[in-house]
Amino acid sequence: MQSIASAGKRCFTLIALLTFAVLSALPISVSAQAGSVFASVRVYDGVDPMDQDEIARLVDDGLLPIMRESDGFVGYYLLPAGDMLAAVSLFETADQAAASTETAREFVAESLASLLPNAPRILENELDIRYSALVEGMADADSVSELYGALRIYGNYDMSRRTEIVDLTASGFLPIQQTMTGFIGYLNLDDGIDTVVAFSIFDTEANALAANEEAAAFVAENLADHRRDEPIRINGRLGVAALAEIRMGQNLIEDKKIEDKVFASVRVYDGVDPMNQDEIARLTAAGFLPIMRGSNGFVGYYLLPAGDVLAAISMFDSADQASASNAAAREFVAENLAPMLPNPPLIVEGALEVSTQLFAAAFDESMTAEDVAMPLHALLAIYDGFDMTRLDETVTLVESILLPDLRATGGLYSYYGISDGIDKAVALRIMDSEASLQLGSDIAAEFIAAHMAGWLPEDPLSVSGRLAVAASADLYQGGNLAAPAMMDDAVFASIRVYDGINPADQAEIARLTNAGFLPIIRENDGFIGYYFLTAADMLATVSLFDSPEQASASNDAASEFVAENLAPLLPNPPTIYQGSLSIDYVAALLASDDYAGSGELYASIRFYEGFDLRHFDEANDLAIAHLLPALQELGGLFAQYAFNDGEDTVVGISVFDSEEASLAANDAGKAFTTEYLAAWAPNPPTGISGKLAIAALAEVNTGENLVGAAMEG
Fold first, then answer.
1. Cβ-Cβ contacts under 8 Å for 216 (sequence gap 6 or more)
2. Computed over its alpha carbons, how large is the radius of gyration of the chain?
3. Which helix (H) or strand (E) holds 372?
4. 295: closest CA among 334, 324, 333?
5. Mean pLDDT of the region 579-607
6. Model pLDDT for residues 292-302, shown as the tens digit of each residue
7. Which of 89-98, 191-200, 659-668 shows the lowest mean pLDDT across its residues?
8. 263-478 CATH, one of 3.30.420.40, 2.60.40.10, 3.30.70.100, 3.40.30.10
């Protein structure tokens, strides 16, 4: 069974690599000279993914000792990846490489040949570039936890300018890799005919994949006219990495079957009031998470609210450390969270069998958590009645087939597989958007149907939605990366809709509001924006403040003016909708001091009554993923807002620079609702549309009316 090393051991390895790195760049030309190295690359396809671990074990135990005892041995790498396997051997001369291969022939025939169904593709020559970041003191140190390789084979290559290209790669691409985090080594060779091989080695999977991206960009910019085909890419965790000058050529990679696993605890609560989810997320991020991440052995934590269900996943180096952390947090939970969790949780605890994180390389150490706060979406699936005799097979299939497919989508953030060792298995997939999550679900469904349909339990317990907390010990000391939906700086919105107004009074109401009411509210603390919309005998106002308290204080300040000037023209009390914005988009193009305010703006306000707010977060994510881009494509989008009133109504507000686009927004909203929200929004939306008499934003012209006194009499 493949597993991962503890976070502590990973941390030791990274510190060792960063602290003791001694860089020795050894570019070697194609001409024979002292110090040249002969490389042989063998690429096997059609390998059974279930055999990869056994091949790695046999190579480590039997083949590698033969090779490293041979004259001229320089190094050896074994890279398994799905149904492909790449072996890279390095010797001082071609004759020494051939002699070593001859010596190992009997072992290969008896132990490995049966696991390699197809003859290999062989690429051999002296290295054109060799670079190693050797780690001082490794001869006496423990072996490395993990190393990852990215091997690229460029076929049908134009070799006429090979020397020039080698020089360009050595002077251009190699320095790029040297600046990348976790860079260990780089090899480059050609077969003398029409193929070039490049091999990059890094300390993490994310860094190795980033190397592929850098290589693609470099080739596209500098070498596109020299290679005619897209390269074959073989990426994955190295099974064997050996260099003659380190630990006498022994394998630097720890045994994959190490029992030092990360402990994971999954808790799923049901019957949670959807209206309490934001408060639970806020309390968890502000109070519970700091206790967890300050505990010994903390690895990571995720909080996933979804309707009336809440899932929490915590990861520690050991069960004892997880228990100690829970004990430390018990008082906080009892006082703050327990009253909102009416039912005891379903608990699944066990070892982390699969772990991949593709995000670490994307973050710069100078960035803060606020810089990278992002919407992350997750799906948690719990398979009850899992056949533990198939666990090893499951782990191998997930790592060799499912994860590469998910990575190829470009949206994978993290993936974890957990086993309780008895009869339950858990999969946690984290993606960078709701759309990526859905695509990942389609990929996972195809994977299960093709490989595990006969024995994987059907209909797992699933929890899906936007993460409120996502914390990894490796990033910002475990601070929350997910930006909870109800942060302290959420914008409070209040909409008032008046009917029965005399159309002849609308212009005067607009004039009085612009001249008297707007100056009062925009001078109040927390003012963000205000919109005033007239339509026949209806009137709608939208006020935006930092908090409900500041909005209320603003209304109090303006109450005398309203009573004396506006109330006589408003015969009926308004219908009021209030809540915190879940979508707050203002076009940056217009949000500037240079905006003259002489143009026209049109608004569309839509009310979805009878909405099932248990699905609001999911609906909001769908709106961000699908509706907002559709509105942006209409052209002239000034602002887009959305919120719910906490009872049964969702409000959407669109502001455009033309009436045509504003009306088209209504059609786009209806189409979006029909396609995505029909199950949760049973009633067609009502609304009000028209030309804005007032549009004011605090950041633009100090909150003055941007559209001018359009209805001034």
1. none
2. 31
3. helix 369-372
4. 324
5. 72
6. 988 999 999 99
7. 659-668
8. 3.30.70.100
Cα 439–Cα 443–Cα 447 angle in degrees, nearest 5: 165
Q: What is the pLDDT of residue 100?
A: 93
Residue ranges of domains in the chain: 22-249, 263-478, 492-703
DSSP assignment of 394-423 equals: HHHHIIIIIHHHHHHTS-EEEEEEEE-SSS
**pLDDT of residue 711 exceeding 70:** no
Average pLDDT, the chain: 82
554-562: long-range contacts, CB 8 A cutoff, minimum separation 24:
554/520, 554/521, 554/524, 554/526, 554/527, 555/521, 557/520, 557/521, 557/524, 558/517, 558/520, 558/521, 561/516, 561/517, 561/520, 562/517
Distance of CA 313 to the CA centre of its chain: 17
H/E element, 620: helix 616-622
CA dist 289 and 478 (Å) reads 8
Fold category of 22-249 in CATH: Alpha-Beta Plaits (3.30.70)
Torsion of CA 605, 548, 532, 554, to 10 degrees: 170
User: What span, in angstroms and rounded, lies between the C-alpha atoms of 304 and 267?
Assistant: 10
Other Cβ atoms less than 10 A from the Cβ of 548: the count is 15
C-alpha dist (Å) from residue 218 to 142, 169, 384, 709? 36, 9, 48, 55
Three-state DSSP class for residue 365: coil
Instruction: Sort residue 646 into left (φ over 0), alpha (ψ -120 to 50) or beta.
Output: left
Q: 391: exposed, middle or buried (C-beta count within 10 Å: 0-12, 13-18, 19+)?
A: middle
Q: Is the CB of residue 457 less than 8 Å from the CB of residue 384?
A: yes
Q: Do domains 22-249 and 263-478 have the same CATH topology?
A: yes
Side chain identity at 510, as an amino acid letter? A
Please state whether the predicted TM-score (pTM) of the whole model is above 0.70: no
Query: Count H helices, E strands: the chain?
Result: 20, 29
pLDDT score for 204? 76
Does the domain at 492-703 match CATH 3.30.70.100? Answer given as: yes
* Buried residues in 39-57 as b, exposed as e (16+ CB within 10 A): bbbbbbbebebebbbebbe
pLDDT at 484: 47
Phi, psi of 288 (to 5 degrees): -75, -45
Average pLDDT value for residue range 202-206: 78
Which residue matches tokens 């248990």?
Answer: 614
